[in-house]
Amino acid sequence: MVENVKTPTTITSLHSRKRAVDGAQNNGDIEQRKKDHIEIILSGKARHEHDSGFRGIAFVHNALPELDIGDIDVSTIFLGKKLKLPYLASSMTGGPDQGGIINRNIAEAAQAMGFAMGVGSQRIALGGGSGHGLDNEVRRIAPDIALYANLGAVQLVQGMSVDDARRAVDAISADALILHLNPLQEVLQQGGDVNWKGVLSAIENVCRKVGVPVIAKEVGAGISVDVATRLRNAGVSAIDVAGAGGSSWAAVEGLRRADSQGQSLGEVFRNWGLPTADCLQAVHSAMPEMLLIASGGIHDGLDGAKAIRLGAALVGQAGALLRAATLGPEQVIAHVAAWEKALRIACFCTASKNLIELRQAPLRRPQHDP
Ligand SMILES: Cc1cc2nc3c(=O)[nH]c(=O)nc-3n(C[C@H](O)[C@H](O)[C@H](O)COP(=O)(O)O)c2cc1C
Domains of the chain, with CATH numbers? Predict the structure, then answer.
């Protein structure tokens, strides 16, 4: 089944549209904002200008792998669930109708291929808006996958309760709850949530009471060792470092702004953040026991292989997957199959017959940056 998302309108039309949206936060506004996000990311105009850090890392090539590539096992177990490959379709959408199609396309591919999926923020659905995000459709399509619910951590100090978080989890029969940390995005968004006092203790409360593992993530600006330490102490089970190098949420929000100050602030902070490879290495060496997800500017399965070598248990893609996800499940399958193939080739050419061996594969610093 192929479900197409309608061709997006242009970015210029975003500016010319008079938005009463800005400053208000009702469900219709949030839904429009989510549509804008998809449109802007698809336009390719909201990317970090710098690399996520993986280009500066290279494996030592092994010219005698003594392996049959067909025997390489890239399966893994994450939070108690077996995955056929260490791939996460990162949280993108939980609300608008277009989002429903995207989620269905990803879910069908995830079920066929055995990778993990995070839905986008379920805030709209919790607020009584579009059913997508709080109905069980994704789970019906993908009964066997590792599926993660999603809410903004700052919402927990803006009236969202632990019971709401539990509803988000139960509604989609999620295996875990992702709480996203997006202070830069919020501060650049007109009417965004800028009072972050008490967020950490609210996260701690959810970790204690929600009944499923909690994963904390950024959205493209990265998690430092200090923040990771506080999150670990609050009881999170895994951290997605979601670093800089891919989608820039400062740029996205700047492009949505109608006022020139907002637009230029989006550009000022476009490249803000910790590159994914840097925070991954730093957090992994500070707390090797912590389950880590690497996302933020992951281009392909070779970036994925490097991320696994640097300590990631799972590798996530959002922006790079979005186009395929708007087209249909076959396109998602083709995209992820290419990603998996590159991961397998990296395993083959480092003589790694599984991901445990890939984590030990020797690295070199490339002498000539491309
Ligand atoms: C269209 C779109 C919508 C997103 N919405 C959410 C969301 O609702 N919740 C969330 O935690 N992250 C959201 N993200 C952030 C991604 O999950 C990811 O952390 C970030 O985009 C960095 O990864 P990338 O460089 O691969 O895009 C969204 C990303 C995209 C592209």
Answer: 80-342 (3.20.20.70)
